[in-house]
Amino acid sequence: MSSALSSTNPSAAAVRPPSARGYHLDHLQFLETEAIHIMREVAAEFERPCLMFSGGKDSICLLRLAEKAFRPSDLPLPFLNVDTGHHFPELNEFRDRRARELGAKLIVRKVEDAIAAGIAVPTPGELSRNRLQIPTLLAAIEEFRFDCCIGGARRDEEKSRAKERFFSFRDGFGQWDPKNQRPEIWNLYNARVNPGEHMRVFPLSNWTEMDVWEYIQREKLEVPSIYFSHRRQCVRRGGQWLPVSDLLTLKPGEKTQELVVRVRTIGDIISTGMVESPADSVEDIIAEIAAARVTERGSRADDKTSEAAMEDRKKQGYF
Amino acid sequence: MIDNTMTLETVEPARAEELPRSTAGHGHPVEILRLNTCGSVDDGKSTLIGRLLYDSKSLMEDQLEALERSADITGGGQINLANLTDGLRAEREQGITIDVAYRYFATPRRKFIIADTPGHVQYTRNMVTGASTANLAIVLVDARAGVIEQSRRHTCLAALLRIPHLVVAVNKMDLVNWSEERFLEIRDEFEEFLPRLDIKDVKFIPISALNGDNVVSASPASPWYQGPALLGHLETVHIASDWNLNGFRLPVQWVNRPNNPTDTRLHDFRGFSGQVAGGIVRVGQKVMVLPSGLKSTVKDIWTYDGSVAEAFCPQSITLVLEDDIDISRGDTIVGLDALPGMSTELRAKVSWMHSRPLTPGRKFFIKHTTVSAQVIVSSIESRLNIQTFEDEPGPTELVANDLGEIRLRTSRPLVYDGYATNRLTGSFILIEPSTNATVAAGMLLPPIELVKPEYNDFAI
Question: Per CATH, which fold does A27-221+309-315 belong to?
Fold first, then answer.
């Protein structure tokens, strides 16, 4: 907390006095001020907001934006994470540590517990915890009576997300109604919800994958080690390199192989494709993305199910 | 040979060579241009955006694969560029765009945020949504159909919303054999009504979105057209002065008061956080708080990255004042030079967005800057006739998609500027109390009287 009094950001040198370069904002400064404005609207307009923090690169940017929006005060909202039980261990370690360092309250709700309580019901043979996150999240929202959840989703990720508002209204069942969204005009956000309803707010809506990494670079943000190149046992399946873990049972004929890999986007450990990459710094990653020929979500099996996979999950209350 | 532009600005010719893919901001900071596309159903908006993404190499292999997959299934093998933006199930089924979709692409010169806004009559509210934050609007016209009511409505909305730059893209030129005469006819039709609208910068470009002519590079099909291709224009149009830098305005969003700080220097910290909505503020500057009229001096401009000597619109900052005065969310801190208006009686242009019509006497919530207040619509002065661009006085109601002028009375005074002066302090939305629906977008007319420098609440 005390660290925030003045000029504590190591990257402060990157923020030149405005007069030195005219009264213009570059693209990252513009995206940043837009996101800070949204965060402050949330803090001012909602009774019980929370911030969904997974430890992934997008939510890491959210944390810095929250610091920029609210320091020198304490962050006025707790962090919420739905733990599928299939997370990369590196990610959970990072999540817990960052919350501690920022003095934030971290609430973790586990899909495991939701299944035990009968809140989430897996279909027979269902391995993925992706769908089961939805009832777990909605139960947590109900438990803490959250009226707003800030999330790190970006519109460039996926087609149905491209239609998402900054302030995305969810009804009493947590559902998104894409045909009946509130018009969002200028920077005037309609934050009104009735009891039992809530809002999902996405400050990074206008950010691209490249913007996220450039911001991480400019702000010198720490990211979990799995984003950088490392050696890992992988297995080829469905056109992807899946990481070998306790949760992955080898099928007959499958062979493991040690590769130099990293993750580009983080989902569950059973469905996240590793990309072969020597990138071991943020600079390398930026160069890699600039030359990339597939989108970030191209390495997520959960999105490939059907053309409308994401839309269907979002309608039910997915983030 | 046509002079296709109404401004004197020179634009570099389109570059025919291959563009490197999406590398903007990679190593160097660039500007963001926000644009929206509008037109009727089937004017080819989504195809145009698909074309911009495709030809600027902003599409990835998996996106192309998905396109090809859907082409095999539904398109008889032909890739449909519109499938890139029409993301929702119902849209693909009906072949229309039902909501604003945002798309992102970049060239080495700029980053672009495109709001793809539907042309359906009943979805005009989405056009207002997409246009409200845009630097530039592209109005698409089908070369065969020419100027239709939707073209006039969209151009009129773009003018009302004060989008600084307009491009009229005459699409499907291939279907009129690239007729220069047809292009000129359409341009003339526009120029007949454009003078009645207040738009500074208009450019006409003949294109074929389907085939890519004059979208990214100049087309051999139109030797008579000497202007830039669309992308070349988007990369070079001057947008640096689109923000208001006159008259400091800070609508207070959030009062920043640390609880039990461990750092003793923070015991008395009381900052006012918000996004500068106009002008420039400097340490040592005299400011006034409205509506109270109390004055103080700027002691510190606090940011996470350290204190700064000055800040400008649209930066997000936390202001610390010399004096301990009562300020809360909804108050506006202003500079003493160009003062705003302040009143409970207001006049505004509104775009009505709801199926329940607006009638005089109805009550709403108004959100203006960071103020939420109650408001009553005291009268509807006029309704805009989209054909004649004339205000027709005395309508009994405004229905969905109508544009009109209204009078309002608010439960607390608004501190505001005319929308033409400042988009951020001159705009508001109306919210219906029972449903929480956003029912109108409003643009305030200039104040009749400004706050005086010697004003304070107690003197009245």
Answer: Rossmann fold (3.40.50)
